[in-house]
Every structure is written in structure tokens, then in C-alpha cells.
Amino acid sequence: MTAGETATLAESHTEMTEIVLPNDTNTYGRVLGGAVLHWMDVCGAIAAMRFASEDVVTASMEHVDFKSPIDLGEVVVVEAYVYETGDTSIEVTVAVRAENPKAGTERDTTSSFFTFVAVDDDGEPTPVPDLDCPTEAERRLRRTALDDRAAELERLVERMES
Predict the structure, then answer these.
(1) What is the pTM of this model?
(2) Do 75 and 18 contact (CB within 8 A), yes or no?
(3) Shortest CA distance to 114 belongs to which of 93, 137, 85, 144?
(4) If pLDDT is split at 50, 70 and 90, which confidence band does 111 have?
(5) Phi, psi for residue 22 in degrees, rounded to 5
(6) What three-state secondary structure class fits 159?
(7) Proportion of the chain in helix, strand, coil states, percent, rounded to 5
């Protein structure tokens, strides 16, 4: 990567879909939390790789609340995009929603913020492009992610103080 190189938020946008099958469920017919976390990590990593044009490794994942169960037979949609970068790090927001194709309904189920580090062929951290948000839609998505992360960090501080 050369100094001053940029990539857009839109270039990182990634959406994955899965159908909840029996192997992904617990004894209540609901998707296992570990399966959801796996899908989130994969989708986030793809967004980061698309953005950086490099391999990435997961450095951290912030707090996750499972807000709504996802049932056997439902469709899981995982969406991710880059909202901030460092020298070698890439911040990605990942959101999950469930769709019931029979009822035509959908609901948000969880979200989190991931940090990935771009690595070269030797597995060493490597520089990433600067984030560019040339459209109003991209700027709005970035602002939403930054605001949501700040709110999540405030909630974390409150939990730690109580």
C-alpha cells in the first residue's frame, strides 16, 4: 500500500445469509450463540479484507447482547462494513437480523464492533488504506457506527461502575 491510498466504506460492505439448520441449534430449536458469533466474525473479516486488499486477523470483538432468539428455519442476515481505520487496524461494525420467510417478518438480533489487523504474507501487520466516505449515505453509515460505538462504550463503563 502506498501512503495516502484510500478505500471507501461502500467497497467494504458485506452481507451474508444463512438458513438456520438443525446442526446450528440447541435443544430449543434456536441458533447457538457460537454459530452467530462465527458468522459475525467471518462477515466482518470479509469486509475488512475487501477494504484493505490484504489478509486480516481478528484482534478484538466488543460486547455482544443476544436481543432476540433466531429459530430453526429462519434466515440469518449478517451485514458488516468498515467505519474507522488506524495504521494497520480496521474497525468494522457487524449487525445480525433474522428473517422469517413464511411470515415475511424480520427483526434485529445482535450487533458488535470488531477490530481486525491487516497482515502481510509473513503474518506481520501491514498498513491499511484511509477510509473515504464520498457519498452522503456512506457518511451517514459511518456516523451511525461511531455514535453506536460511543453509546456502547458508555454502557460498558456504567456496567463496570455498578
Answers:
(1) 0.93
(2) yes
(3) 93
(4) very high
(5) -55, -35
(6) helix
(7) 35, 40, 30
